[in-house]
Amino acid sequence: MHGHRIVLRLFSKIVSDELRGFIIWLPMVKGDSASSAAALLSADKRFLIQAWDPKGTAGQAFSRTLNLPCPAWDVYLLYDRGIQWTDKDPPAPSLWMHQLSEHKVDQSLRLKESALLHAVSQRIKE
Predict the structure, then answer these.
(1) CA distances (Å), 13 to each of 9, 29, 35, 59, in order?
(2) CB of 21 within 8 A of CB of 14?
(3) In terms of C-beta density within 10 A (0-12 exposed, 13-18 middle, 19 or more buried), how is residue 62 classed?
(4) 72-86 in b/e burial notation, b at 16+ Cβ within 10 A?
(5) How far is CA 113 from the centre of its chain?
(6) What is the pTM of this model?
(7) In angstroms, rounded to a whole number, what is the distance separating the alpha carbons of residues 67 and 60?
(8) For residue range 3-50, what is the model confidence (pLDDT) as tens digits?
(9) In Å, how far are 15, 76, 85 from 53, measured between CA atoms?
(10) Are 3 and 111 in contact (CB under 8 A)?
């Protein structure tokens, strides 16, 4: 929920139509469900996908891309313009952050709202 609020605040602060978002909810903790994900949908049309992935397929695919020891959940990926998904797994992001403290994941990539806002703002200006 913390990361979701950060993403929604970021979208409220950056009003550019160049910004696009994808939110994929996975069943990772007790209470995660299609209905709990549906309750968090944003009306912002820049979110092109807001989906419930009951099997965690997306989490496994992004885990391979990010070389994580766990499913990719609570991860926040930034892609520059022009990046295309041409293989089975997603392309590597230009920047990514996470909230995976209980796993052996580089903690220097920990989600920081100000850093994410700065990175997105810089790319929108380019």
Answers:
(1) 6, 29, 27, 27
(2) no
(3) buried
(4) bbbbbbebeeeeeee
(5) 13
(6) 0.90
(7) 10
(8) 999 999 999 999 999 999 999 999 999 999 999 999 999 999 999 999
(9) 28, 16, 19
(10) yes
Residues in the chain: 126
Reduced to 3 states (helix: H, G, I; strand: E, B; else coil), residue 58 is: helix
pLDDT tens-digit readout, 46-102: 999 999 999 999 999 999 999 999 999 999 999 998 999 898 899 999 999 999 987
Q: Nearest 5 degrees, angle CA 57-CA 59-CA 60?
A: 65
| 50-58: long-range contacts, CB 8 A cutoff, minimum separation 24 | 50/22, 50/23, 51/23, 51/24, 51/25, 52/24, 52/25, 53/24, 53/25, 53/26, 54/27, 56/26, 56/27, 56/28, 58/24, 58/26
Q: How far apart are CA 113 and CA 110, in angstroms?
A: 10
